[in-house]
Structure formats: C-alpha cells, structure tokens
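Long-time lurker. I teach an intro course on protein structure, and each term I like to show students one example going from raw sequence to a predicted 3D structure in token notation. This year I'd like something fresh instead of my usual example. Would anyone be willing to generate the tokens for the chain below so I can use it in lecture? Attribution to the forum is fine with me.
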Amino acid sequence: QVQLVESGGGLVQAGGSLRVSCAASGSGVIIYVMGWYRQAPGKQRELVADITSDGITNYADSVKGRFTISRDNRDNTRNTVNLQMNSLKPEDTAVYYCNARWTTRSYWGQGTQVTVSS
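-- Reply from a regular --
Happy to contribute to a lecture. Here you go:
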C-alpha cells in the first residue's frame, strides 16, 4: 500500500517562506515523478512543480524563481520530495497536495494547508 505523508505548511505573512515535505512509502520502486499541486477555494487543482527521479524539474510560471523543488530518492525505500517556497504571496494560499506517479500509477497525499496573509 503506497502512502504519501506530507508535513510542513502553515501560516506566514506575505514575503515569508515555508517548506513542505512529502515522504512516500510502500512503492517498492524509485518513483519516477514526484510533485506538488495546489487547490485554492473555488479553483481547480493545479500543478505547482514536479521533479523526475533524475532531477528534471518543471514549475508553474506563477512560482518560477520563488519556489524550489528537490527530492531524495537514493533507493526505493526513500522517496521524498520537498518544496521550498520563498517570497510567498497571498495568491499562493491553497491546500498543497503531494503526488507520486510511475507507469500508470498515481497517488495523492492528504493535503496540507498553506496560508499567506497580506
């Protein structure tokens, strides 16, 4: 059973920083792509950033230059992904979800709230 456990998030003032992390367990493989999505109230879930097992990154235009995604996948028992968020804006407020996918499989975390006050 694959589980994604998220940590971090919280409340911060505009211009501040937060870090969210996600640890995947139970996959038995080095996960090909891990990433972060977010969903604000009344909006669709959107990609924030993702990263492949060999370090290729992809960012939404709205977060480029402010957010940095990284991961640790030294072996198939340690699949973690981190999102460092700097220069946060009120429009970054959302529930952030971790995603892990490989072949035809895709798994989601339970979500962690990030709130940026103005």
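Some talking points for your students: The first strand starts at residue 3 and ends at 8. DSSP finds no helices and eleven strands in the chain.
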